[in-house]
Specification:
Strand content: 15-25%
Largest sheet: 8 strands, mixed
Shape: globular
Number of strands: 18
CATH class of the largest domain: Alpha Beta
Number of helices: 14
CATH topology of the largest domain: TIM Barrel
Helix content: 25-40%
Radius of gyration: 21 Å
């Protein structure tokens, strides 16, 4: 493996080459040199006008394998992630069966060992993600689970949450929860707001999120440990987490890309492709999330990739399933935020921070480091359609829309791919 990238602009605030245009020589999976010199390479990538960042990492995606491989599987999920710029993805345990045993962890790890994108399994906290009985978390940690979460389902059982925080301290394990009081969101289809009233749909109040965050913070203060809040959506949630961080709580959090660019007003036409859980909130909430990213309150941006078959989406709105296939439109979506969030404000949220939170090796653009890189063509335009879609599913509100921003190449150690 001998690659030469010519005239790439570095986007990595942690690199001494940040914002510089340089040539990069990669040999046998390592960055041999970063300078202005010409080098010989078996593969030459003309990167003039393009941006080179550390390899992207998605902290929340569902690949549906095993159980619902017709929606996505490990092979197509990894291929979609690679073409979207991700060299690492942590996948949710909400499969069939749920990822909750050592053999389930081994299934994911063994099947994805040769993928360009590293696939890291997160294991369920409770059996079948029902919130009632703990899994063997310590054994699962030894088997290779990078974190523990019931994924798309909140940890509603207070005693289970408490015990999980205590047990995981033995291995410095991370507990992840999507904060939602399901008794308050039951039968809901969208955010509880004037829009839901106009549309005649049962609302899901932000109160359901705030109550769970307050509960979890109290339990964390009592038991110790560390916790990550996933998929926060509201101004009040940002405020609660900001105050807790100032008090020294060992917490981190993420937001999905969907909640940064869409609001509940996008549902006015009953387009089920905008139906997600937690739901899209108001524009005030969206702006608060942006501010939370700028201030460092929110640590990570995720794709929250949830591929679904058409039969699950082409229904009456209140009967359609929740979820957006978000991997392939991550880059264009980030570019849509350029007036509110610049690249330096989001790049660490999809590169360094998720790796640090999950205790994974860092990816930095420095000489003698392992090559873990994503090359971005910021001006390329393309349309998401059946010819460009790499996922098995097409439940995206961007389908048939022209988008700006495309991943040109991904390099992960000794593996790499250049995209048209």
């Amino acid at each position: 493996m001998n690659i030469f990238l010519r005239e790439a602009k570095i986007l990595d605030p942690k690199s001494p080459h940040h914002n510089k245009v340089v040539n990069i020589h990669i040999k046998d999976g390592r960055i041999e040199s970063i300078d202005k010199k010409e080098h010989r390479g078996e593969t030459v990538i003309e990167a003039k006008g393009m941006v080179l960042s550390p390899g992207w990492f998605d902290m929340r995606a569902n690949f549906n394998d095993p159980g619902n491989e017709h929606r996505e599987d490990l092979v197509t999920g990894a291929a979609t992630a690679a073409q979207s710029g991700f060299t690492g993805v942590a996948i949710l345990p909400n499969t069939e069966p749920v990822i909750q045993t050592k053999s389930h962890i081994e299934y994911v790890r063994s099947r994805s060992i040769n993928f360009l994108t590293d696939i890291l399994p997160m294991a369920a906290v409770t059996i079948d993600a029902k919130g009632e009985e703990l899994t063997e978390m310590l054994d699962l940690h030894q088997a290779g689970a990078v974190a523990f979460t019931d994924g798309e389902k909140p940890l509603w059982h207070t005693d289970i949450m408490l015990k999980s925080l205590i047990y995981l301290q033995k291995v410095n394990g991370l507990l992840i929860n999507q904060p939602e009081d399901q008794l308050l969101t039951r039968f809901g289809s969208m955010n509880e707001s004037t829009v839901s009233t106009v549309l005649g749909l049962k609302g899901m109040p932000t109160l359901a999120e705030h109550l769970m965050i307050k509960r979890d913070l109290d339990l964390l203060k009592y038991a110790g440990g560390k916790m990550h809040f996933s998929n926060i959506t509201s101004a009040e949630s940002v405020s609660l987490i900001k105050k807790a961080k100032k008090k020294g709580y060992h917490i981190t959090c993420d937001v999905s890309i969907h909640h940064l660019i869409h609001t509940d007003e996008d549902l006015m036409d009953y387009d089920s492709n905008y139906k997600i859980n937690p739901p899209l909130r108001t524009d005030n909430d969206r702006k608060a999330l942006i501010k939370g990213l700028k201030e460092g309150v929110i640590d990570v941006i995720t794709s929250s990739h949830t591929p679904l078959d058409e039969e699950s989406k082409k229904l009456e709105f209140d009967r359609a399933e929740f979820g957006i296939a978000g991997l392939q439109t991550m880059l264009p979506s980030l570019f849509r935020l350029s007036n509110e969030l610049n690249s330096e404000e989001w790049i660490e949220k999809i590169t360094h921070n998720p790796r640090m939170i999950l205790n994974q090796p860092s990816a930095s653009i420095e000489a003698k480091q392992t090559a873990n890189l994503t090359l971005i063509d910021t001006k390329s335009k393309w349309t998401l359609d059946d010819s460009t879609n790499r996922s098995k599913s097409r439940n995206s509100p961007f389908f048939q829309e022209e988008l700006t921003g495309k991943v040109k190449a991904v390099i992960n150690g000794t593996q790499f791919q250049i995209f048209d």
